[in-house]
Structures are given as structure tokens and as C-alpha cells.
Amino acid sequence: MVDKKKYGVVYTPDKLAEFTAELLYGEYGIERDDKMTILDPACGESALLLAMKEKSTGTNRYIGIDIDEDIINVNIINNGEDINYFYGDFLIQSGENSTLDFWLKKIGQVDCVIANPPWSSERLYKKEVLSREGFILADGQYDNYFLFIEQSLKILKMSGKAAFILPDSIFSDDAIRLRKLLCEKTHIFVIARLGEKIFPNVNRATTVIIVGNELPTDDTRTKCFRLGTKERKKFLNNEINLMDCYLTSVHEVKQSRFSETEECLFDIDLYEVEENLITKLEQDKINWNTKFSFGRGVEISKSGNAVICKECNFAQGYTKSQENTKKKVCTNCSKIIDFADSKIVKIISERKKEGMRKIYVGENLHRYMMSGHRYLKLGIQGINYKGKTLYTPPKILIRKTGLGINAFLDNESTYISQTVYSCQYIDREVDEPMEYYLALLNSRIIYYYYLKKYGENEWKSHPYLTKKIIFSLPLKKYIKSRLSSQICQLTQRLLISYDRDVDLKLEKKIFELYGLVDEEIMMVMDEINKLPDLSAINNMKFSKEEFEKCTDI
């Protein structure tokens, strides 16, 4: 029996299988009455192959491969008359010949691949084995679905089509090489970002990608779709059809746009009519690397607790899983720490005790505001407090995890946890008010840019900002002027006490700074107002009427 958790096995829901099959048949050159060879290299219970068969009127050959012999035997009993099944590992087969040659001899090249490959970053194969098999994506950080995509493209006929059901990690930094491969070697027909809960009891978000095994041209176009939060709830409640949502909201972009950035970003939320606005926002932007130093605070878990190793006396945080098992490996001496007979110390506390210093954690930080603080115990051996310069004011604090961009200006030597970023001027003598950059960072314009380029990252339970994302945000260079002075004045007022009217007046000044015309302002407003109804981001929304009421300071 295969360890499904280890291999990242989660069987495909029927509704998702139907949607994926319908995409293949509906728009991408696959005729329902064609005679094709269709392969699922990780077939599981055969939901995808059965969906393809259900929607076909042709005499196709269906092939299912799976590493789980038990599921293959069940499939043969249930569907053996219609589908050819093979028990084996699609990625690695032992023998003198390569695994690709093994499968080519067994089944030949195929016209179509449809797959929900395993989602797992666990190393299942030795690096030298993968290298011998010729996997170019088996280097550094990778997920096993990278390898399934790479192998599928090798077994796919030229101009053949492939559909993959993937996690949202396809949009992460770890997947740059995979995105680059797809951008350069395939025609990306569709990227459909469906969000979380598409798989029951699985929090990771789901994306469907359909590609053709053909080199793209300058005119190659990609259809982009994101299932909105409200629509996703209705779909999961069986109130609407997923294909209807897709046909209503899908839009096209040039595939070449994805290759224009070093990261090959799949910025699918950016419509072509908005590209000029994005270009405008990127003019005269700062170079973050020369302007700001950057760092995270004290390395301690969210609970603020640490366990002390009896062997070396080093304190260290621990995960929820380690807390449940009551064991962890010491980060200093590598001995096993048994929580049952080890001392637990509280590093971060709600109440101040002697020798403690004020500390901000992520939950304290909001746009222009701090909601309380906690206290940090110093001098605990093993805890990485970071250097004192990290906490030297003034510093812009940015919340790592949570919805939106939340930044605050700290003019005290307050400590921060690892869930908070600190930005300080590299040149401490620079004559530029930090309130100016804080205002831009908290602005709706910059949040709009972030949404268009990255979207809210759902592939982890909570979206989070990375240094790379933050340093890509186009903050306009500071120029001493009446306008920049007004921006700083309004920001200072918000730091004293948040006021929505002042917030909108400030936003109006920032629109002026970036040179936005009425039509572009409406683009920003519409995008912000489409955000889910959540308290964390509701104050970012605004109407045309209340915005027009804003008068000069």
C-alpha cells in the first residue's frame, strides 16, 4: 500500500475532473470525435480519464498509470474494459533503459495528457537517479509535480495537449524554473486559478493549467481566469457551474508577458487594458536595495514559548506538530529533546516583568496603527535576538503574514518578532522623511499593483509577503515639493490617530503623485472594491462619491 500522505496523493473530485476535461474539449483543438491516445500518469481512481471518456464521442484509447498497485487492481475491476491500466512509477523505473524509454515502449507517445500529479516536496528519489534520467527541474527546491510535468511533455506528441491540476505553489519563487520551462517550450493555453477548498479537507489552493507541446510565438495568447471568493463559495455549495464562471470571467493576454520578468510571473489578474497603468506606476521608482536595509525580528514561535535542551542548555522555539509529538531535534547539538522532561520557558509575554522589553508581533501591526504590544525576555541562551541595530529607529515595520499590506512607522527602539519586517535607511543621514515612503507602502495604489502582479497568495493557509515581493513594489522616488510635504503631513496625522477622511485625502494626494487620471483611479477603485468582505481589508474600499468629497488639506 502506497503512503498517500508521503507521496502527496489526493484524488480528484468529480466536478474538478469534469471542468478540466471540458476545458480540453471546449477550446483547444481536441475534437470530441477524435481518435486519440489519452494518458493520466497518476490516475488514482480514474476520475479524469472517466471525465474525458464521458465527454467524448470518438474511439479514444485511454491509459492510466499509478504507483499504487491496489488502486490499479480496483480500477481494472471497475473500468478495465474501457481503460488500459499499468502499475508502475511514471518517473523512475529500474532497469538498463531510461524510464522514458520504458514507457514509450509500453504505450508510445500520446496525443493528450490529463493529470492531477502528486503535490509533495518530499524527496522520493536520489538526486543522482533523477539526474541520470535527465530531469532538469530536479535541482534545488522542487515539488514532485514539477517532474510529472517534465516527463509528460517528453511523452506527449508535438502539438499534443496537456492539462495539469496543480497547487498554487506554481506561482511561488520555488517554481520559477518550471514557469520558465512552460513559457519557453509550450503554448500555455489557459491558467485557471481556482483557490482553496476545491479539494475537500485540503487547504492548499488549486490551479488548472493547459499547455500545448509547441513553441510559442510573439503572438501566442493565454486565457486567464481566477475564481472569485463569492463564486467559489457558490460553486462549492453546488449553486453555480464552474464552466459558466470561467466563460463569464476569462480574459486573454500575450503569453510573452510572462517571460518579461526574471521570475516569469504568471500575473494572470492583470488585464491588457491595465498594462499601461502598471507601466506608469513603475516609473521613477526607488531601488529598494540601495535605499533600505531589511530584516526580520527575534526568531521565536508565535506562542512565545521555547524548550530548553537538557544536553546543551540551548533554548529554541518549536512547531505545533513538535508540541503535539512532545519531541524535536535540538537545533544546536542535534540531540532529541523530550518535552516531558524538559523545561519550557516563555520568551514573549502579555505582562511586563523585570528585565523585559517591549516587542511588536505581527498581530499588533495594522495600516498606520499598532494595537497593543507584548514583552520580550532577554538573555536566553539559544534565542536569536538579532543585532540591536535592527531595532534602531526610525524604521518602517511591515507585517509579514495577513491580508493586504500593513505598515507602521516606529520611532522607538521596540523589538519585533520574526513575523514583522524592519526597513531602515541604509544612509542614516539621508534627508527624506520616512513618513513619505510609509504612505506609499500603505496606499491603495501599491496594493492594487501587488494584487495585479501577485494576487493574494492562497497556497498557504495565510497569504504572506516576501522580501522579493516588497522590494518589487514601485515606491516613487522622494522629491522635496509641496505635494510630498502634504503627503507627510497627512501621514503624521494618521500615525497619531487613524481617521478615514484623512486616509482618503492622503490617497488622493498619492494618486496625484503618480499622475493618475480619472479612468485609472476608477480601475484602482474597482479592483479594491472587488476584495472579499473581510475586516482586515474593508477599510481599503472606497466609493466614487466619498472620494470626491475629499477636500484639500
For this structure, the CATH topology of the largest domain is Rossmann fold
CATH architecture label name of the largest domain: 3-Layer(aba) Sandwich
- The average pLDDT is 91
Rg to the nearest angstrom? 26 Å
Portion in strands = 15-25%
Percent helix among the residues? 25-40%
- Tell me how many strands there are: 24
Poorly predicted spans: 1-8, 457-461
What is the SS-derived class?
Answer: alpha/beta
Q: Name the CATH homologous superfamily of the largest domain.
A: Vaccinia Virus protein VP39
Q: Distance between the terminal alpha carbons, to the nearest Å?
A: 70 Å
Q: For the largest beta sheet, what order do the strands appear in spatially?
A: 3-2-1-4-5-7-6-8-9
**Overall 3D geometry?**
globular
Number of domains: 3
Discrete helix count: 21
Indicate the CATH class of the largest domain: Alpha Beta
* Most strands sheet: 9 strands, mixed
Could you give a short description of this structure?
The protein is α/β, with parallel strands linked by helices.
